[in-house]
Amino acid sequence: TSQDGTTIVVDRYGDGPPVIIVEGAFCDRQTSMPLAELLAPHFTVFGYDRRGRGDSGDTQPWAVEREIEDLAAIITEAGGSAFVYGMSSGALIGLEAAARGLGVRRLAMYEPPLDLDGTHAAAMVPELTRLVEAGQRGDAVAHFMANGPQIPGQVIAGMRTQPFWSGFEAIAHTLIYDNTIGGDRSVLQRAPVVTVPVLVMAGGDTLPALKDAAHALAGAVPGAAERTLDGQTHQVDVTLLAPRLIDFFDEGSNVTLLPYRSSAGAPSGTAGCAGRTGSRRR
User: Fold this and answer.
1) Rounded to an integer, what distance in angstroms lies between the CA atom of residue 20 and that of residue 35?
2) Cα(72)–Cα(103) distance, rounded to whole angstroms?
3) How far is CA 212 from the centre of its chain?
């Protein structure tokens, strides 16, 4: 249970030093499973439904501070300190927690979607809010897909006919949360107080705005390491990501890591969104 009484549902894998996975837009704790299973031989891995998605509660009014408190509650559950891996907007939640000294031992971030010029995440919040409040959840999802990850319109139209689309609509309101987080450039002013080791990663084939955001945040955190995963996009191949995290979360590591290169052909596993699974409540 988080500080405001909201139930946060957590899955736990493996045994070892604790690692918490904080997911991004459209994702729930089921999304974390492929990566968690790769990390589980080395760590105790916690994947959770962020508030407003999956089986977790969604006490209103929402604020980023509540999401930070949710992560803090899981850190407490993990023993008071933990390694944190944040994907997309989850990376920015992890950074905020680290800046507040909330028991983050090391922080790894993949493609934090910080809106550096106000034309991406921040610009989407008013329209997303209007559409969700009007009950046009499918249109809100489509608006985000077109203007965030820049998915072509014909692809979005095809996706709207698929059974999984209703799952996107069910958590469309959380897109407001994610883009509010991504639109807050003041995190660059808080980043310099982070004192724990930080690794910032981006895919070599990802959107330029995501590369720029990763570079800006790596420059704002003292001593942060910045790495590119060649051939990767925002849908990162977890078989390439997991070894990077295992290396980084080794506290004997000096964080001078060599880049991984993806093999030719389609990735054997990518971080994407999926369904739900049974779990314990926290």
Assistant:
1) 11
2) 8
3) 17
